[in-house]
Structure formats: C-alpha cells, structure tokens
Specification:
The chain is of the alpha+beta class and 74 residues long. The chain has one helix at residues 46-57, and strands at 10-21, 24-36, 42-43. It is built from 1 helix and 3 strands, in the order βββα. It has a 3-stranded antiparallel beta sheet, with no helix packed on it.
Length: 74
C-alpha cells in the first residue's frame, strides 16, 4: 500500500489584504496570517477576521492613499 500524502507546510507571515467596498478598494497591510508554502493559501485567525470590519468602518484615517490604474480585460 502506498502511503504518499500531501503534507502542507504552514508559515506565519504578514500579508496585505485587499477588498472592494462600494467601488472603492481598501488595502490592509501587515495582516497576520498563516500561509501554506506549497499552495500560497492564507488563513486568518478568528480574532483577525473579527477585527477587520471594525478597522474598516471606524473613522480611522488611513496611513496613506494610493491611486490605482484600472484595466478592462477585453
């Protein structure tokens, strides 16, 4: 019997997380995540996920604002 199986290697890292709300993009930098080395998939702790909406909807001033080019795939 062959006992080969996929074993994922997870590492702790800080990532950037991007989302779109009402046509505006929001980038959150230095978000703690566990990332799979093989697939690049990222996992966030429940505490981190709960904190994201609070960060976005509070009247906090962003650390900077960027202009982003938009292209259409046509």
């Amino acid at each position: 019997m062959n006992n080969d199986f996929w074993q994922e290697t997870m590492v702790e890292e800080k990532v950037s997380y991007t989302l779109e709300i009402n046509g505006k993009f929001i980038i959150i930098e230095n978000l703690p995540a566990r990332a799979c080395v093989e697939t690049g998939e990222r996992f966030f702790s429940p505490e981190t996920v709960e904190r994201l909406p609070k960060m976005i909807w509070e009247d906090r001033k962003p650390i900077r604002v960027m202009e982003t080019p938009v292209f259409e795939f046509a």
